[in-house]
Structure formats: C-alpha cells, structure tokens
Amino acid sequence: MSLFWLLHFSAYLAIASSLIKFEDNDLRHKQDGMYLNLYHVAGLDSYLKSTSPFTFSDMFKKDEDHVRYLHSRLTNNEDVRISGTTSPSGKVRGPKPVSIPLKSAIPLDSGNYYVRIGLGTPAQYFSMIIDTGSSLSWLQCQPCKVYCHDQVDPIFNSSTSKTYKTFPCSSPQCSSLKGSTQNKPGCSRKTGSCVYSARYGDLSFTSGYLSQDVLTLTPSETLPSFVYGCGQENQGLFGKTAGILGLGNDKLSMLAQLSNKYGNAFSYCLPTFYSAPSSKGGFLSIGTSSLTSSPYKFTTLVKFPNKPSLYFVDLTSITVAGSSIGVAASSYKFPTIIDSGTVITRLPMPVYTALKDAFVKIISKKFAQLPGVSILDTCFKGSVKTMSIAVPEIQLIFHGGADLSLKAHNTLIEIENGTTCLAFSVSSRLIPIAIIGNYQQQTIKVAYDVANSKVGFAPGGCQ
Ligand SMILES: *[C@@H]1O[C@H](CO)[C@@H](O)[C@H](O)[C@H]1NC(C)=O
Ligand SMILES: *[C@@H]1O[C@H](CO)[C@@H](O)[C@H](O)[C@H]1NC(C)=O
C-alpha cells in the first residue's frame, strides 16, 4: 500500500500549498508563456479527506469508460440522442432518473489532472479537469436543477456574477454545439436559452445552459467573454472537480477562445501521481510562446475527416531496450489519439502482444510473473523502485522521429505493495486504435502546436 501512504502524505502538502496555488500561477507566468499549475486529482481527493479511498479498480473501470467514449467518437454513433433535453417547464432534463448514481457510488476521477481557474465577477475559483479529448468547457452551476455531484469548491452561482449571460437558441454559439459536443443543442421554451448536453462515457453526462462570463486564468490574465456550459445536470465520472476545460481543436474549446490573444498552441507537463506539489510540478501553458522554452522534437498531427477536434499522431514503431518489437511497419496503420484524459496507453492486440513479449523476455529474468490485475495482464513481483534498475526503456516513435522515451515511472504501475504491472493495455478488439495515455506522458513536456499541426515532446519537464 505504498501508494496509499504516499497519497496521504501528499495530502498534507496539498493543504499547505493550496493557499499559494493561485499566487503560484501568477509567478509562473513571468517565466514564459502563460502558466497554470497542474495537479493530479488524487491529491485533490485526499486533500478533501474523502470517505471513498482511491482504488485502482475504480480508476481502471473509469479508464475503460473513457476509452469507450473515444471509440464511440471514432465510430458512427456520433449523434447520441439524449431524450428530453428540453421540457415545457424550461427545466433541463437528461437520461432517466434511474441512471443517476448515488453520491457514494460516483467513482473517483482518479486518473486525471486539474488546474485552478476563476469564473465570473467577482471571480469564484474552481478545480477543473483539463481534457484534450473534448472541446466544450463546463462546470456545475447553481441551482443544479437536476443534479450536481459533490465538489471541493462551492458550486458556481451565476446569480452572484455581474457579468454572467446565457445565449439565445438562435445564436451562432448555440449552433456550434453540435460540432463541439456531438449532440444537437436544445432550447429552453421558457427562457429561450440554448441548452447543451455532452456525454463522456457510459455514465458521465452533463447538460445545462450555454453561457458566457469572465474567465480568470491568473490575476492578470482574463478572457472577458468565455463561452462554456453552466451544468444543471452532471452525472458520472468527474470526481470532486467542478467540471472540465476542453482543449480539443474546435472553435468552442478554451484553446480556440484564447488563441486570438495567445496563439493557437499549448503545452503541459503532467506530474506523477505521487509527486508533491513543488517548483518542478506540473503545468499547463497556453500560447505559442510556451513552445520555444524547450527543445521539442515534433511530429505532425494527422487529420481525420469528420474528427477535427481530436489530436491524432502517426505512431511508426515501438522499441524495447533499443530493439524493435518486431511488428511490420504496415501493422501500425491505425488511428492513434494522444489524450490527457485516458490513463493507460491502449494498443491494438498484435502490437500490444509484441510489446509485452519483448518486455517480459527481459524483465522475467529477474522478476517473477504474477497474475494480471483488471485491464493489466502483465504483472510482476516487485516494486517500481526495485524493478526500475532492470526495466528496459520503451520508446514510442512517431512519424518524423519524435519519440516518447519511457522511464520506469511511465512503464510500470504498482497496483499494491509488491505487485507491479506493465502500464499498457489492449484496445478494443473490434476497432484497432491506439490511445497514448497520460501515464506514459508523465514528467514529459508535451507541446501542441495546433496552428502548425504538430505535437512535440521534450523530456524532464516536471516531477
Ligand atoms: C511492502 O513490502 C515490503 C517488502 O515485502 C515491506 O518491507 C514493506 O514494509 C511493505 N510496505 C507496506 C507499506 O506494507
Ligand atoms: C445564489 O445567489 C443568489 C443571489 O445572491 C442567492 O439569492 C441564492 O440563494 C444563491 N444560491 C445558492 C444556492 O447559494
């Protein structure tokens, strides 16, 4: 249970640092680009003294839901019909009440990363998950007409903001929702306000009013008319965060809305699960100026017709300890999404099997194999620490030579004391896709130069 204890230890640090988080955002800004500190939600949850402890099985279950969501976006069932998005009373309604989970049953959103932002005038502050796999930003909003889950910060009360506005159903922003959320907008008959709805996985769902207000990123960096969803019904896998900041490539995403001022680019470094907040902690930086701070190796973003908002890259080979895993170049012709919201990297079966075999061949000389756990089928007797000396470097190599060179902390995950697994899994057998998950991106700086259609990697970005 070493991870468990580490999480609790970091809880103390999180409390100590929570007061300075916002000021830190401002200090970072002075270095280059516009920086927000980025944290792992496991820290947020322990900071709250949650009654539901972190479990890997919850995390993996949620991760599978997220992967299913990405699958559904790649297949044709895009136009997910949500019945009753509008009703004569003007109330927002979503799926049948039977699907509303009990508060205690909401799994922790334990695989994701969040930043702190302010919304409204005067600003109210929130912990928001960053998601490159979706575009519309939203947060829970009073009066929570249907349902809001528990969150760390007081829920946003739009009536107390002097600058809050909703959009009429006839607005162009309302018409843009279909492209951003894959769902047609609804219209409140009572108020004529535009109603959005978005689904993320089997259970995750948000619906509410398309709105606009002042977004405060740092005390000196604000966006006067930020378009986002004011969620009146929010169910599922968002943990104790207030909502999501969408960084997808779509005109309603936060990125696009900030691009006029900062340029159409961002970069981030995801800290490890158990890192203490520190000066080398994670960050999200918006703007083209953040791309020049490190020697990034870039690969071209691949465009997929009809899926312009997701970030696709071209994975060309994988090596283990410098040797190819022996899969023909032609076998890598599947769509590969790079995503901040999926934890464990997924690979199509033939590639996954070859990677696993190459890895086991080396590591099993020193460490005994154990039965698989949940979605991870390759486990060993040992800890990340003891195994890190023997673990071979895995490289994910992309078109043009950019690579993700994975260290032990990107390759292995310690599920319980003495059981450590290869942190890769197989994607759906039906749809061969790959998803580069956030576990494999930890501590590496990742730059999204959206304006020039490329993604780059640089090692040693944070701890
Ligand atoms: C984990 O296992 C090691 C070796 O088996 C042991 O020394 C250590 O005390 C254990 N740690 C915890 C927190 O149980
Ligand atoms: C929201 O703010 C309004 C105006 O200040 C207040 O009347 C209302 O009670 C608040 N709602 C909640 C749930 O706090």
UniProtKB/TrEMBL annotation:
Signal peptide feature range: 1-18
GO MF assignments: aspartic-type endopeptidase activity
GO biological process, any: proteolysis
UniProt similarity note: Belongs to the peptidase A1 family.
InterPro entries per record: Aspartic_peptidase_A1 (IPR001461), Aspartic_peptidase_AS (IPR001969), PEPTIDASE_A1 (IPR033121), Peptidase_aspartic_dom_sf (IPR021109), TAXi_C (IPR032799), TAXi_N (IPR032861)
Swiss-Prot/TrEMBL keywords: Signal
Residue numbers annotated as active site: D131, D339
Highest taxon listed in the record's lineage: Eukaryota
Domain Peptidase A1: 113-458
PROSITE patterns: ASP_PROTEASE, PEPTIDASE_A1
Record's protein name: Peptidase A1 domain-containing protein
